[in-house]
Amino acid sequence: MNVITFESEAYQALVDKIDSLSQLIDIHQQKVNPDEAWVNSDDVCTYLGISQRTLQRLRTNGEITYSLLAGKAYYTISEVKRLLENRIVRSTAQSVDELCDQYKKRINSFQGKGK
């Protein structure tokens, strides 16, 4: 094991920089509009009460926009809301509210881990 020593002033400067970065991240995350948040297929299926196959069919037919990242599909919450508004998927607005709440909880849990 290697031991690294710091002068207390250098250590305090490093801690101050980390704290300021943490504050910037917190401020940025508070400004994020939940409608612009990205959620995965599992979340969409769970909260809309549809199957993975139904979601795949929506993608194939071009009825929902999505992005692929490492082979996994992600959707914006605003796109999920559009599905409901246009009656492409039968579900309730409460389902989308629950999806937004779940997203906020996930973001808050990440914030808690970083502190």
Could you explain how this protein is built, in words?
The chain is mainly alpha-helical. It has a domain at 32-90: Multidrug-efflux Transporter Regulator, Chain: A, Domain 2, CATH 1.10.1660. 63% of the residues lie in helices and 10% in strands. It is built from five helices and three strands, in the order αβααββαα. The chain has helices at residues 8-31, 41-48, 52-60, 77-85, 93-114; strands spanning 38-40, 67-69, 72-76. β2 (67-69) and β3 (72-76) form a beta hairpin. The two termini are 26 Å apart.
Instruction: Give the SSE order as H and E letters.
Output: HEHHEEHH
Stretches with pLDDT under 50, minimum 5 residues: none
Strand content: 5-15%
- Distance, first to last CA: 26 Å
Write the CATH fold name of one domain.
Answer: Multidrug-efflux Transporter Regulator, Chain: A, Domain 2
Give me the number of helical elements. Answer: 5
Strands across the major sheet, in which order?
A: 1-3-2
- Compute the average pLDDT: 82
What is the count of β-strands? 3
Apparent shape: elongated
Give the helix level as a range of percent: 55-70%
Largest beta-sheet details: 3 strands, antiparallel
The CATH architecture category of one domain equals: Orthogonal Bundle
Keywords:
mainly alpha, 115 residues, elongated, Multidrug-efflux Transporter Regulator, Chain: A, Domain 2, 5 helices, three-stranded antiparallel sheet
